[in-house]
Automatic annotation (TrEMBL):
Sequence ranges assigned to domain HTH arsR-type in this UniProt record: 12-105
Protein name in UniProt: HTH arsR-type domain-containing protein
Domain of life: Bacteria
InterPro entries xrefs: ArsR-like_HTH, HTH_ArsR_DNA-bd_dom, Metal_resp_trans_reg, WH-like_DNA-bd_sf, WH_DNA-bd_sf
Gene3D superfamilies: Winged helix-like DNA-binding domain superfamily/Winged helix DNA-binding domain
Taxonomic lineage of the native organism: Bacteria, Pseudomonadati, Pseudomonadota, Alphaproteobacteria, Rhodobacterales
CDD domains: HTH_ARSR
Length: 108
C-alpha cells in the first residue's frame, strides 16, 4: 500500500481506527489480564473470577465490553459460560503480549 496515493492513505486510516479500537480495550489493566488468561485457552467465568479476584459484576462488565468489541466469544456448557479469544488478530496480539508481559517469568 502506497501512502502517497489517496487510496493507500484512506486504507491506512481505516486500519488505524481498527487498531486504535483494539488498543483502547487493551488499555484497561483488568481487560488486559482477562485476555492474558484467555491467551492460554478457554476459561469459564468462575475460573476467570477466581484467577483475577474480581467481583462478578465487574468481571461481567469487562467481558461484555470485550464481547461487544468482537474480541472474545462465549460457549455455554450447562449453567457455565466459557470465554475464549474470538478474533484471530486479537489472538496474535495477545500471544505477543503474553510472551512479554503475562508469563510467570515476566513478574520478576
Amino acid at each position: 500500500m502506497a501512502l502517497a496515493d489517496p487510496q493507500g492513505a484512506a486504507a491506512l486510516g481505516a486500519r488505524a481506527e481498527q487498531v486504535a479500537a483494539v488498543l483502547t480495550e487493551l488499555s484497561n489493566p483488568r481487560r488486559l489480564m482477562i485476555l492474558c488468561l484467555l491467551a492460554e485457552g478457554e476459561r469459564s467465568v468462575g475460573a476467570l473470577q477466581d484467577a483475577l479476584g474480581l467481583g462478578q459484576s465487574a468481571l461481567s462488565q469487562h467481558l461484555a465490553r470485550l464481547r461487544s468489541a468482537g474480541m472474545v466469544a462465549t460457549r455455554r456448557d450447562g449453567t457455565s459460560v466459557h470465554y475464549r479469544i474470538a478474533d484471530p488478530e486479537t489472538a496474535k496480539v495477545m500471544m505477543a503480549l503474553h510472551d512479554v508481559f503475562c508469563g510467570p517469568e515476566s513478574a520478576a
